[in-house]
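ZP: hey, is the zinc ion complex queued? I don't see it on the tracker
AM: it wasn't, my bad. submitting now with these inputs:
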Amino acid sequence: MPVRVVPVPALEDNYMYVVIDEETKQCGVIDPVDAAAIQTAAEREGATITAILTTHSHWDHAGGNVELKKRCASVEVVYGGVGDGVAGCTKELGDGDTFALGNSTVQVISTPCHTAGHICYLVDGNVFTGDTMFVSGCGNFNSGTPAQMAQAFQKLLALPDETKVWVGHEYTCKNCRFALFADPDNEEIQRRLKWAESCHSWTVPSTIGDEKRCNPFARLGSLPMFDNEPGGPAERMRLVRKAKDDWGRR
Ligand SMILES: [Zn+2]
């Protein structure tokens, strides 16, 4: 039986997720910054929270870990990336590690850059990308290099196109506006921006295939700004990040 994912918005634009193993009704929760809200959401689904899965140490992702563990006696483990300093972490994970969630298996994809120990979680065709990959966007490089982010994107983009992408923030409209600025003739992005602007709720999940078509950080090889421009993925990642930051300051 598959897992079922329930997104739960938090704070201004954060996403938390309840990931339910349907066979056992055990669930893991991703980045439960609002402990009360995620507990209510899990209860509404008839699921028991056994694990907290933290993508990275920033407060707006890990800030509810300790409270949720206090509130839910069923929580057995708090996962976080090696060396990331995640609040309340009881088990650190590295690239390729796996663990059980009910009868499902979760795999860890290490994506250091936004934080030094940022990780993504892959389970049953769903990837939880935290602040590494957004819908049509990318987290900032707080603790890493463009080469590291380029490598992180390469790992995520190697997943099957139909993999569902569940991101850490709802930034889709703004991201699509920059994506169109960087890739003006891309009709898929034009369509996506219209759709995102008309969405009155969330824009998750995306898919890896959609990100390949609509995310400038995933399209380093085909952006018009790089026509006749040499440079490998790391240099292009640096330049797209800089273009986005400059665009955001206009
Ligand atoms: Zn963050």
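AM: back. The helical segments are 35-44, 59-62, 65-71, 146-157, 172-182, 187-198, 208-214, 233-248.
ZP: great, adding it to the tracker
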